[in-house]
Amino acid sequence: MNDTICAISTSQGVGAIAIVRVSGESAISIVNQIFKGKDLTKVDSHIIHYGHIIDDNNIPIDEVLVSVMKSPRTFTTEDTVEINTHGGIAPTNKVLELLLEKGCRLAQPGEFTKRAFLNGRIDLLEAEAVMDMIDSKTEIQRKMAMNQITGKTSDLINELREDMIQIISNINVNIDYPEYDDVEEITNEILIPKIEKLKEKINKVLKESENGKIIKEGIQTSIIGRPNVGKSSLLNALLEEDKAIVTDIAGTTRDIVEGKITINGILLNILDTAGIRDTDNKIEAIGVEKSLQMIEDSDLILFMINNNEPITEDILELLEKIKKKKYLILINKIDLKSKINKDLLKVEPNKIISLSIKENQGIEELKEKIVELFHMDEIETKDPTYLSNTRSISILKKCLKRVEEIEKAIQENLPIDMIELDIKSIWEELGTINGTTYEEELLDEMFQRFCLGK
Fold first, then answer.
1. Total structural domains in the chain?
2. In which element (H, E) is residue 269 found?
3. What whole-number distance in Å separates Cα of residue 390 and Cα of residue 269?
4. Contact 87/10 with Cβ under 8 angstroms?
5. 92 pLDDT above the threshold of 90
6. Does residue 229 lie in a domain region?
7. 97 and 165 both lie in a single domain
8. Which of 9, 72, 284, 420 has the lowest CB atom count within 10 Å?
9. Single residue among 118, 153, 177 that ends a domain in this structure
10. Where does residue 250 rank: exposed (0-12), middle (13-18), buried (19+ CB within 10 A)?
11. Tens digits of residue pLDDT in 294-346
12. Is residue 444 part of a domain?
C-alpha cells in the first residue's frame, strides 16, 4: 500500500482517448518527471493541465491532458493522476512504460478499488458494485449497481447488525452490572420476540435478493423437448434472428445454442437444447445428456410438445423431471390438427401456452407469462435495493440458519451468556458481507476478478 501503482484504465485498442491512471504517495512527482507543461507538484487539486509526455531525451511521446487529484478527495483517497492520451495502443503503452521506469508498479486487477476499500472510502458491497456497474447490460442492472455504490444496500446489513449489537450490549450490561436497575433484564422470554424479529428481517432481505440475483445474472432459460418440436424455431423467434439451424431432420441440434433477450429490463439467457430421446448416435447422445443437465441448472424450463402428436410416456416422464423448477408447457404447431389429450399432462391450465411459431402466434403471450411467473412488473417498478452476489447471499443464508439455531436454544433454556456468544458470532459474520470484518484471502480472490485499471 506504500508503493505507487499505475495501469491503463480504458479498453485496449484504437479510440479517441485512453486514460492511464496513477495512484499512490509518489503519483504526482513520478508523472511530473515525464510531463512537459506546468510543474504538477505546485498545481491546485482537481484541475486539468495541457502538455506533453516526454522521454528521457526530452522527445515528445504524446500530446496529453493531465488531471491532478490530491489526497484525500480521490477514489483511492491517495494522490491520483490521470493521463488522457490519444487512444492508440502504442502511445498508451509507451506512457505506461515510462511510468514503470520512473518507479511505478503495474497495478493488479481491481487494485485501485481494493485501495479505496482498505482506505475506508467504500465498503465491500460498494466495491463489488463497481464491477456490477461495469458489467451492467440493462437499465435495471445499472440502477441496482448504483444503489450498491451509493451505500443503500449496505444500509440493509448495517441495520441488521445494529439490531444485534443492541441485544448484545443489553445482555453484557446484565451480566457485568447486575446492580443496574434502569437497564432491562434480558431473559429468554424477552429475547424470543427480538430473535423472531431479526429472523423476519433476514428472511425479507433474502426473499428480495432473489430479485437481485435475477436482475444481475438474468433468468437461465432452457428450451427442452423431443426432437422436431420447434425448439430452434422458438429460439429464433424470441431472438428475432436465425441463430439456430432449423430443419425437418430429427437430431439437427446436437449442442447448446445460446441467445439473450430482454423482457421488462430483465435478461433472459435462452438455451436451445438437443432433442431428448433414446439414440444410438454417440454425438447426439452427448447432446441429450447436456440437455438433461440443463434442467438442473436452469431457472425456467420451456417444455415444448407437438400439437399434432399424441402424448407419450416419455413426454410424461420428462414432465415429471421439470416439475421441481419453474416451467411452462408450450404446445407448438396449433395450425395443425390436434392429437393431444391435455388432461394427461395433469398441470394447471395457466402453465400451458398454445402457439404456432410458423404463424407467429403465441410468442407475445409467452413473454407476458414469463413476466407474470417471475413478477417482473414488480421488480421493474420497485427501487432495486437488493443483495445480488452469491457470496453475500450465501453468508446471509448461513446467518439465518444460525439465528434459527439460537431460537431453538432459547426454547431449550440455554444460559443467556452462551446465547450472547452465538449472537455475537452472527454479528461478526454479517460484517463480512460489507467488509466490516474480512480476511485478506477473500479480498485477493474477489478483486482479482476485476478488470485492470479499476
1. 2
2. strand 266-272
3. 18
4. yes
5. yes
6. yes
7. no
8. 72
9. 118
10. middle
11. 777 888 888 888 988 888 887 888 888 888 888 899 888 888 888 888 888 88
12. no
366, three cell numbers:
409467452
What's the CA gap between 159 and 140, in Å, rounded? Answer: 24
Chain centroid to Cα 326, Å, comes to 21
User: Are residues 110 and 185 located together in one domain of the fold?
Assistant: no
In a domain, 181, yes or no: yes
- Percent pLDDT > 90 in the chain is 25
Dihedral over Cα of 31, 35, 41, 46: its sign: negative
Burial 253-275 (b: 16+ CB within 10 A, else e): bbeebebebebbbbbbbbbbbbb
What are the C-alpha distances in Å from 161 to residues 89, 126, 157, 236, 424? 48, 17, 6, 49, 10
- Distance from C-alpha of 291 to C-alpha of 272, rounded to nearest angstrom: 9
> Can you give the residue range of the structural domain that contains 93?
5-118
Lowest mean pLDDT among 85-89, 131-135, 147-151, 245-249: 245-249
CB 23 within 8 A of CB 5: yes
Percent with pLDDT over 70 in the chain: 87
Shared domain check, 217 and 108: no
Residue with more model confidence, 55 or 376: 55
The enclosing domain of 79 has a CATH number of 3.30.1360.120
Q: Which residue has the higher pLDDT, 434 or 101?
A: 101
- Structure-block grid coordinates of residue 239: 431472438
- If asked whether residues 55 and 195 sit together in one domain, one would say no
Q: Using CA atoms, how far apart are residues 111 and 277, in angstroms rounded to an integer?
A: 50
Q: Are residues 143 and 84 in the same domain?
A: no
CB atoms within 10 A of CB 157: 24
In a domain, 79, yes or no: yes
Do residues 331 and 414 both lie within one domain? yes
What's the pLDDT band for 176 if we cut at 50, 70, 90? low
Residue 166 and residue 17 share a domain: no
